[in-house]
Automatic annotation (TrEMBL):
Pfam families, A to Z: EF-hand_8
Span of domain EF-hand: 62-97, 98-133
Official protein name in the record: Neuronal calcium sensor 2 isoform 3
A GO molecular-function descriptor: calcium ion binding
SUPFAM superfamilies according to UniProt: EF-hand
Source species of the chain: Schistosoma japonicum
Domain of life: Eukaryota
Organism lineage string: Eukaryota, Metazoa, Spiralia, Lophotrochozoa, Platyhelminthes
InterPro entries: EF-hand-dom_pair, EF_Hand_1_Ca_BS, EF_hand_dom, Recoverin
Keywords: Calcium, Metal-binding, Repeat
PANTHER family for this protein: CALCIUM BINDING PROTEINS (PTHR23055), NEURONAL CALCIUM SENSOR 2 (PTHR23055:SF69)
Amino acid sequence: MGTIHSNKGINKTELKKLSAKTHFTEAQIKKWYKGFIKDCPSGLLNRSTFLSMYTQFFPDGKARLFYEHLFRTFDQDASGSIDFNEFLTAISITQSGSPEEKLELAFQLYDIDRNGTIEEYEMTQIIKVSYTLIPFELRWFIEISIKLS
């Protein structure tokens, strides 16, 4: 997708495109861009950096598989890295997207092989990795509730 950037910041053309495509103002996009370039000077967020950023929330490693799927979802062009355009688009949808945009992003998360359909194995895999994010006490309660019903 390739956001064109320089030491001065994001270029005007890309800024206007992102403003039209996302739910952010040009000023907000500039702030996001500044932070993105600070963390990713090459303009690309690679898998290992993405995982290290997100696994801070779950340092025991339980969330790693979930964040692998999240990385794949954000990496829209399957290039192996997330550029600023992909990053900001995903953030925009998760923060301020319409129900339809959020549903489409969720669909992409579940559609592991990107064939446009969600197979049973894909659904099962995402549910399993999502389940690891739930605190143990709550998992226990859910399991007991399921057994009782």
